[in-house]
């Protein structure tokens, strides 16, 4: 919606600074097109929802197997399973702003023209047992995205998740839910002593936000909207034949610039906090008032 090349340009920008990326199942690009220009060293993950047929409510098992195999073949590094979306949040603005020509090529099956996102719903019958079901399909790491409580974090460890992604879905699923940064400390405490990594997204706008998340125990920090703002950089120009190449280049460059700004801000914040390296970042850098960070 914000750039002609979509996630292809996004991935180029991410790769230019050696960062990681999770490709949405709703991407407007095929994953093979996204991975084609990238080095195999770039950590690219496939985000996954488990779907069911909208009419019969039967789980689309073959599709889940299909997309996981595609991810493996394309050299992706892991599966990011969204676990906080048994149903869609009530998003009143989306029918207004999502153009009908936006397609989701990843939500398809070979030789089945009727398999389409419009015919699918999220599978609300998912349980913790489905982590083992997914594990039976792949040796790729399985990262659970949408964990906000210590109880769920402990269960994720028990069920063999490879990592936990603390996220509140940008506040778009359930209004009033905890901010990711507020939920982070109890999740980190819950998995302490295990080898499971904890990631975070939500509300990251400055390098100081990254510093706070790392101090509170996040192993990695992901962003959404800022990367999209970078992707949209300069696309406001009228796209003519002469400008098209410039616009395509600027999309990836905008993502690069956003990530470089965050990296520079983080580096400065670390220096001003007395941290010579990431290993020096500790929780005592952050004071947690009762109402949050």
From TrEMBL:
Stored Gene3D superfamilies: Aldolase class I
Q: Enumerate the catalysed reactions.
A: 2-hydroxyoctanoate + O2 = 2-oxooctanoate + H2O2; a (2S)-2-hydroxycarboxylate + O2 = a 2-oxocarboxylate + H2O2
Q: Which SUPFAM superfamilies match?
A: FMN-linked oxidoreductases
UniProt superkingdom: Eukaryota
Q: Which UniProt keywords apply?
A: Oxidoreductase
Signal peptide position in this chain?
none
Q: What molecular function terms (GO) are annotated for this protein?
A: (S)-2-hydroxy-acid oxidase activity; FMN binding
So which cofactors does this thing need? FMN
Report the residue ranges that make up the FMN hydroxy acid dehydrogenase domain in this protein.
1-291
* Cellular-component GO terms for this entry: peroxisome
What Pfam families does the record tag this protein with? FMN_dh
What InterPro entries does the record tag this protein with?
Answer: Aldolase_TIM (IPR013785), Alpha-hydoxy_acid_DH_FMN (IPR012133), FMN-dep_DH (IPR000262), FMN_HAD (IPR037396), FMN_hydac_DH_AS (IPR008259)
Q: Which family does it belong to?
A: Belongs to the FMN-dependent alpha-hydroxy acid dehydrogenase family.
Q: Which PANTHER family match?
A: 2-HYDROXYACID OXIDASE 2, S -2-HYDROXY-ACID OXIDASE-RELATED
Tell me what this protein is called: Hydroxyacid oxidase 1-like isoform X5
């Amino acid at each position: 919606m914000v750039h002609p090349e979509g996630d292809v340009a996004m991935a180029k920008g991410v790769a230019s600074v050696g960062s990681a990326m999770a490709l949405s199942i709703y991407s407007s690009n095929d994953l093979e097109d996204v991975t084609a220009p990238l080095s195999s060293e770039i950590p690219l993950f496939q985000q996954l929802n488990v779907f069911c047929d909208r009419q019969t409510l039967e789980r689309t098992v073959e599709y889940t197997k299909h997309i996981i195999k595609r991810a493996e073949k394309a050299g992706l590094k892991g599966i990011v399973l969204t676990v906080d979306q048994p149903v869609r949040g009530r998003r009143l603005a989306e029918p207004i702003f999502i153009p009908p020509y936006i397609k989701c090529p990843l939500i398809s099956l070979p030789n089945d023209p009727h398999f389409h996102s419009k015919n699918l719903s999220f599978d609300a019958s998912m349980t913790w047992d489905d982590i083992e079901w997914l594990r039976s399909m792949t040796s790729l790491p399985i990262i659970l995205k949408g964990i906000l409580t210590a109880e769920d974090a402990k269960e994720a460890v028990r069920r063999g998740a490879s990592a936990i992604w603390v996220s509140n879905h940008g506040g778009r699923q359930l209004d009033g839910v905890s901010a990711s940064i507020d939920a982070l400390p109890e999740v980190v405490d819950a998995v302490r002593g295990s080898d499971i990594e904890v990631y975070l997204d939500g509300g990251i706008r400055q390098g100081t936000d990254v510093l706070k998340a790392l101090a509170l125990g996040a192993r990695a920090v992901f962003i959404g909207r800022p990367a999209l703002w970078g992707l949209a950089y300069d696309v406001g120009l009228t796209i003519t034949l002469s400008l098209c190449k410039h616009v395509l280049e600027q999309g990836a460059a905008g993502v690069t610039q956003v990530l470089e700004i965050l990296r520079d801000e983080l580096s400065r914040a670390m220096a001003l906090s007395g941290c010579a390296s990431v290993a020096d970042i500790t929780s005592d850098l952050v004071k947690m008032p009762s109402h949050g960070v």
